[in-house]
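_Backbone structure tokens_
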Amino acid sequence: MNTVSALVATAAVAAAAITGASIWLSGIRVSESDNWVPVPAVTQEEALEFKKRKREMARSSEEWKDKVKDKLSANEMNVCFGAGTEPPFTGKYWDHHEKGHYECTVCGQNLFSSDTKYDSGSGWPSFYDVVEKSNLKLEEDLSLGMRRVEVLCSNCGSHLGHVFDDGPEPTGLRYCINSASLQFIADDGSSEAEAGQAGAGDRDAGEEH
């Protein structure tokens, strides 16, 4: 079991080591072999410690918030700095198939490649691997009364989404990421924002004639 899988399993069963398990972190229970075992409930002490840790993380991201507050939309700010979640099947990248890579929309750190993107049916961009594991930071997420593993950008601390262990081989992982946390860069080096600006320029030029 690799490091990420181990962390996912740990979050699901409260530090229990599970091998060969089918873990459904968004549900109530964990399947191991043919036996169903309940996911341990989040204790009050754990919940308080989690809230304290999130407050500390929020303070550390204030500098980045100031840097990007004028370039990001309200939805992007809510997702990246408020750990929000966009509704499924609404983000700009859930059904995106161009070749390139996906950067952190806050700091530009390279996170995911189109080569590992797949359709998970969840309605969010899904990847079975990362460009570089050190570019991500994983934290146990006890919000909503569930045990999940939050995925953060290791450079700026921006909230990206969550990782689950129900993905395809070779990793068996599903990085479930918000489109609002990502910026796509095509293989030719162009970004979606640049393409949009070029299109707007063409429209303006046409209107002048």
